[in-house]
Amino acid sequence: SYYDIISAAERATTGQILDTNPNIKLLTHSLWALHSLSGNNIPSETLTMPTVSVERAALFAHIGRTFTDEEFDELCFEFGVELDEITSEREEATKSSTVKLNKQQIAALSEEVIYKIDVPANRYDLLCIEGISRSLRVFLGEMDAPTYEILKATDEKSSTMTVIQSSTATIRPFVVCAILRDVTFDTARYKSFIELQDQLHRNLCRQRTLVAIGTHDLDSVKGPFVYDARAPKDIKFVPLTHTDEEREFNGASLMEHYETDASCKHLKPYVPIIKDSPLYPVVLDSEETILSLPPIINGSKSRITLNTKSVFIECTATDLTKANIVLDTVVAMFSEYAATPFSVEPVTVSYVNDANKVVKSYVTPQMYTRKETASVKFVNSLIGIDVDPEPMAQLCNKIQLGPARILPEAGEDGPILEVTVPPTRSDILHAVDIAEDIGISYGYNNIVKTVPQTCTVGGEQPLNQLGDLLREEIGRAGYVEVLTHGLCSINDNFTALGRPITEAVSLSNPANVEYQVVRTTLLPGLLKTLQHNKSMSFTGGFKLFEISDVVLPDKEHVVTETVVGAKNARRVCATYAGPTSGFEIIHGLVDRIMTLCEVAPEEEYVSSSGNKTNKLVHCKEGWFYTIRELKQGASDYAGTYFPGRAAEILLTSPNGGERVVIGTFGILHPEVLANFDINYPTSAVELDLEALL
Amino acid sequence: MSDPESAILAALSASPAASIPDTYTFSSTHKLDHNQVVGVSKSLEGDAYVKLTELSTSFFVLGKEAESIVNDGSQEILVLAALIEAGDGGLSMPELQGAVGKDVCKIGMGNCLKNKWAKKEKDGKLVAVVKIEDVRDEVRELLQQLNEGGGDPKSLDDKAVTALKRRKLISLVTRKSYSIVRGPSYSSTRVKKAADLTKEMLDSGKWRETPFKEYNFKTLGESVGGGYLHPLLKVRAEFRKILMEMGFQEMPTNKWVESSFWNFDSLFQPQSHPARDAHDTFFIKEPAQTVSVPEEYYERVKTMHEVGGSGSIGYRYDFKREEAFKNLLRTHTTAVSSQMLYKLANQKGGFQPARYFSIDRVFRNETMDATHLCEFHQVEGLVADYNLSLGDLIGTIETFFRKIGITKLRFKPAFNPYTEPSMEIFGYHPDLKKWTEIGNSGMFRPEMLAPMGLPENVRVIAWGLSLERPTMIKYRIDNIRNLFGHKVDLGMTKNAPVCRFEAAEEVEQMQ
After folding, report:
1. Is the ipTM of this complex over 0.85?
2. Which member of A120, A457, A559 has the closest CB to residue B414?
3. Apex CA B373: angle with CA B277 and CA A486, to 5°?
4. Which of A16, A354, B125, B438 could link B427 by a cystine bridge, Cβ 3.0 to 4.6 Å?
5. Is B46 exposed, middle or buried (0-12, 13-18, 19+ CB in 10 A)?
6. With left for phi above 0 and alpha for psi between -120 and 50, is residue A595 left, alpha or beta?
7. B104-138 pLDDT, tens per residue?
8. Which of A325, A449, A537 to mutate to test the interface with B (most CBs of B within 10 A)?
C-alpha cells in the first residue's frame, strides 16, 4: 500500500523525508506546495512561521494544569499551532551540527523539557509564553479573554513624545509609545519580555526595517521625550552593548564598530538600515540623554533591570500600522505584570514642524478593541455546520472573540452575531476570519464532510495532451525521458552550445551561477545528463529526450490582458549518442514526430526515399513539412552543429501559410561535445511543439 | 595430447565411483591446459554429465630473487665469498659492488654485518671474519625446502615463512580447481545438446532428434531495451488522470514569468509580506517590469489592499505600482488560478461553476539540499461554486487522497495570507503511528474574489501539494537531486515501476 511505501522511504532517509519540520511551513506564501520536506538548512531569518520555545513546566504553570505530551500535542493541533519538538537545552546542544560544545559545557546545560511550538505567522499574540498560555486557557474555557484598560497618565511629562517631523521624515518617520506602570519583573518574565521583542523584530518588524522596539526604565530618564534624527557625529552615548566598560561612541563610530566587531555580530545585519543616511534617528529625554538609536541599539542609561518598575516603550517605524500592532502586542502581553493587570498608560505623540508648531498628534497605545458582526447563517454556510445562534456566541468566547452576543435585531439573513475583536487580533479583516475562528472552536475535524454538487466535466490542455501522447511514443521509440532544470547558466545556454549570447530572461538574484537565466533551449539539460551518465552503455546508441518549456523574451505576448515581456514555448528535444553520430536516427525521429502529428512530408523532400513514403499517408489537410540544410553562419543555432550535418525543419500549415522554421537537428559540433565533456558522437533535435498543435 | 572432454569422461569411466580428485593435477598429468579442462568440465556439468566441487589450494611461489638464491646462493653468501676471495685487505664498497653487482651487494652486505660474518675496517673496507665452511646459507635451504614441498605452506614452520615473506622472496597464491565425479546423466561419450531452437532446425526438421540443453530458470531474462519515462512524470500523468476523473479541467500554466501583481497582489497578499523578499523569490532582471495588467481590475485590487471593501477593512497601507509590476518567476501556480478565476468572472454569459486543476513548475530562491530544489512541481485543485463550505473542501480533499490510497486524514487550522479558513492536511501513517503533513488547503479570501467581479456568494475552495514528495515516497528516492535534474541516474528511471495508486475503499461516512 501507499503507506508501506511511505514507511520504507522514511526509514531510508532516517526519518527526515516526512518530518514536517516547522521551518518548512515558513513558505506561507506557498500555500499549497509542500515542497520542503525538511527545512533544517534554512537560515532562521528567512522564517515566517515562527517557532516559540517554552519550558514545559513554566507553560503548564501558566496554564494552571498539566498535560501528557500527547494530550498537549492534541490540544495544539485543534487550536491550530503545532507542537513541533520536545527537547531540552542539553539535547539540542548534543544534536546541533553548527554549535560544537565540549562534554562539560553540554553537561552544564539544563535538562528542563522545552516545547518548541510553531505558531501561525499572523498571530503575534502567540509569540511568547504569556500569549500562548493565555490563548490556550481561554480555548479550554478556563478564563475569559482579558479586557485592556488605558489609564490616565500619572505624569504629564513622561507621557509626552515630540517628533521633529522634518528630520525623522528622511529616515524613519513614525513613533508610537506606551508606559507600563509598577511592573514586577523576575528572571523568567524579563527573559520572555526580551524574547518577545526578538520574535517581533524577526517577523512582523521585518528585521527591524519596518518597526524597531525600544524598551526603557522610565525612572532613569526624564520626560518629555523627543524623537529626532541627527548627524551621526552629533550622537554621543554609551550603548547598551558597552554598559560594563562605559564606553562612549558617536553614531558613526558605533556603526563601524558593529560592522566589524565579532562580539556584536548579532547587530551587524541592522547597520545597513541607517548607515548611509546623513541623519540617524534618535530617541532622547528632556536632558538629551539618548534612550535609543533605532533600529540598532538602546542607550545604556535607560536599560531595563530586574528592579525596573516603570517601562517606557517606544516603537519607531516606517510603517505606522505595523508600529501600532507591535506596540499593542507588547502591551497586551506584558501589561499582565502591571500593578493593575492588563492596564497601560498612554503617551501623546506630537509631530512638530520646523516652526515648532504641532502638525499632527495622536495618543498611543491604541489598544483598539472593536466590535465586528457576522451573520449566523453566513458562518454556518461557510464552515458547513449548523450551530444555533447562542451556542455560536459561546464558541466565540473560546477563541478570544468574546464577549460575543446575538444582536437583538436580526438582519436580512437572520440572527447577527457580534464579537469583540481584541487589539491582539489585527489579523481579523473580514467576517470570514470570524467564521474561521468559529470553525476552529467547533473543531475542523468535527465538520461533516460533503462533496460539492458542482456539475463539471474534466478536461486537459491540448498542449499538455499532445505532449503526454508524444512522450509515450518517443519513449516507445527507445528514448529515455529526462527532467531537467529550467534555470541555467549563460554559458551552458549559449556559449557552450556554440551560439552567440542573445536575449534571455535573466534573474536579478540568482542562488548560484547555474541559475543566471531561464533556459531558451532544452539541449544543455540533455547534454549535462549525458555527461553525468557516462557509465551507461553507449554501444547500441544511448537515446534521451525531454518535452518541457523554455522561456523566450516577447514584448507582445498577452495572457489575461497582461504583458510581462516573456512567454513559454514548449519544446521537444532528443539526443542520440553512440559509436557513430546517429544523424539518420535523429533525422528518423523528426519524421516520426511529424507522422505522429499528422504532418506530411513535402513531395520534393521525399523524392529519393522510395517506398518509405507510404508510411506517411495520414496527414491533416494543408500541413506539410520539409527539411533543408542549415549552413554555418546561417542562424544562431548553426554553431551547435557539425558543418554539413545540420538541418532546419520547416512547417507549412493552413494557419501559417508560409514555411516556418520550427526546429533544427544535426550532429553536434565536436567543440560543443568537448564543452559538455561528452566522449561519443552525438546528434540532437529540438523543435517547437506548439507549432504542431 | 587428447581432447579434454574425452579425457575427463574416460577418467570417470572405470566405475560409478570414479573421480578426478583435482583438475589441476589431472591437467598436468594429461598435459592439458587447466583453464580448458575447467571450461569443458563446467560445460559437462551443464548437461549433468559430471558434478563439480570447487577446490581451493593455497601455496607459495618463489619470486625471481628467490629463484636465483636457490640457484646461486643467498646474497650474503655471495658477498661473503667475494670478501673471502679478497683476503685480509677486504673490499671497499665500490669494489664489492663491482664483484657481486649492486643489488646483491646492497642486501648481502647488510646481512653479512648483521650475522657478524664480516666487519667494517676503519678505512671503510669490508673484511670477512668467518670461513665459508663455518656458515650455513639458511635462506637458500628454506627456499629449497619449500620448493621441494611444492610450495605447500606446511613444508615450513611459521617463523621461516615470516622471514621469507619479510624479504619478499615468496608470495602466497590461491589456485581454484575442481574435483569431478559422475553426474546423473554421465555417459562415456557426449551427445551435443542444442542451446536454442533455430530456423535451420525448423527447415531441416532436425529439431525432432536434437536434444536441448536445460534452461537456467534461475537467472533474469534479457533486458528489454527500449525507452523509459521519467518517474515524476509518470506520477504527474496519474495525478492528471485522477483529477480529470473527478471533473477537474486543466489550467494553462505554461507561464513561468509572472508579474508580482498576479503572483501576490491579486491574491490579497500584502506587498510587505516576507515571501516577497528576494531570499524567497526569484525576481527578474530582464525583463524587470511588467508591461501591462488589466487596469480596472488593478484599481480594484489596489483599493482592496489599501482600504478594503466587500466587508473587509483591508490592509491599510500604500499600495505601490512598482511593487506590483516587478516581474518574477512564479512562486506558485496559484498565480494562474487567480487569472482563471478572473476570467471565469468576466467571461461571456457570466460566472459558471468550475473545477480547475494544474500540475506545473514553480520556483523558489532557496538553499538547496537533499529535499529542496529551486524548482519543483505543484499540484493544485480548486472548485468555484455558489455557497461552497469548508465541509465541501474536506470532502473534496478526502476524495482525492482516497484515490491515491490515503484514507485517514485530519485537518489542522493554519494561516495562509489568501485563504480563510485555511487547513493543513495531515495523513496518518499506520506504520510509524504518526500524523504527517501531506498538503495544504483553504477557501480563497473574499478580498481576493470580490475585485475579480465574482458574485458575492461564489466561494472558491482549493488544495495543493507538491508532486515531488509523493513521487519520492512512491519510488523510494531520498534525495531530490536523484529525481530532478541532470544528475539523475538513468538506471533509476529504467527500473521505476508503473505509477499505480491503490484507490482506497469507499468510506461509509461520505454523504
Report:
1. no
2. A120
3. 90
4. B438
5. middle
6. alpha
7. 888 888 888 888 888 888 787 888 888 888 888 88
8. A449
Which distant-in-sequence residues (6+ apart) come within 8 Å of A536 by Cβ?
A: A542, B490, B491
Assess B388–A contact: CB distance below 8 Å, yes or no: yes
Chain A within 8 Å of B243 (Cβ-Cβ)? Answer: yes
Mean per-residue pLDDT, B137-143: 86
- Which triple of cell numbers denotes residue A400? 478570544
Chain B segment 84-113 residues within 8 A of A by beta carbon are: none
What burial letters (b/e) apply to A660-689, b meaning 16+ CB within 10 Å?
A: ebbbbbbbbbeebbebbebebbbbbbbbbb
Q: State whether residue B296 sits within 8 Å of chain A by CB.
A: no
Please check the confidence at residue A18 and state whether its pLDDT lies above 70. Answer: no
Instruction: Give the residue carrying C-alpha cell 530582464.
Output: B286
Q: Mean pLDDT for chain A?
A: 88
Question: Do A502 and A550 contact (CB within 8 A), yes or no?
Answer: no
Shortest CA gap B471–chain A (Å): 10
B443 touches chain A (CB under 8 A): yes
Residue to test with chain A: of B232, B241, B257, most A Cβ within 10 A: B257
Residue B72 to residue A82: CA distance in whole angstroms: 86
Measured between beta carbons, which residues in chain A are less than 8 angstroms from residue B288? 508
Q: What is chain B's alpha carbon radius of gyration, rounded to the nearest angstrom?
A: 43
> Is the minimum CB–CB distance between B246 and chain A shorter than 8 Å?
yes
* Residues of B whose CB is below 8 A from A42: 366-367
Q: Mark yes or no for CB contact A478/B227 under 8 Å.
A: yes
Please give the sequence-ordered ranges of beta strands (E in DSSP) within B183-260, or none if there are none.
249-250, 257-259
Distance of CA A413 to the CA centre of its chain: 39
Residues B361-374: what's their mean pLDDT? 84
Determine the pLDDT at residue A47.
37
CB contact under 8 A, A444 and B390: yes
- Is the overall model pTM greater than 0.80, yes or no? no
Q: Are A275 and A267 in contact (CB under 8 A)?
A: no
pLDDT in tens, A174-230: 999 999 999 999 999 999 999 999 999 988 888 899 999 999 999 999 989 999 999
Is B410 in the A-facing interface, judged by CB distances under 8 Å?
yes
- For residue A14, give the chain B residue with the closest CA: B478
pLDDT in tens, B295-327: 999 999 999 999 999 999 999 889 999 999 999
Helix (H) or strand (E) holding A86: strand A82-88
Nearest alpha carbon to residue B262 among B324, B329, B345? B324
Residues 6+ apart with CB under 8 A from A552: A503, A504, A505, A520, A566, A567, A568, A569
Express each pLDDT in A620-659 by its tens digit: 888 999 999 999 888 999 999 999 999 999 999 987 678 9
Closest CA to B459 of B367, B378, B403, B396: B396
* Cell (9 digits) for A321: 500600522
Distance CA B413, CA A443 (A): 9
Q: Which of A91-95, A307-311, A446-450 has the lowest mean pLDDT?
A: A91-95
Cβ–Cβ below 8 Å for A483 and B225:
no
For A582, phi and psi rounded to 5 degrees? Answer: 75, 25
Percent of chain B with pLDDT over 70: 97
CA A654 – CA A656 distance, rounded (Å): 6
Record: contact A9-B477, CB cut-off 8 A: yes
State yes or no: pLDDT of B14 exceeds 70.
yes
pLDDT, tens digit, 9 for 90 and up, residues A475-492? 999 999 999 999 999 999
Q: Do A20 and B229 touch (CB under 8 A)?
A: no
The three grid cell numbers given for residue A602, joined into one nine-digit string: 513535402
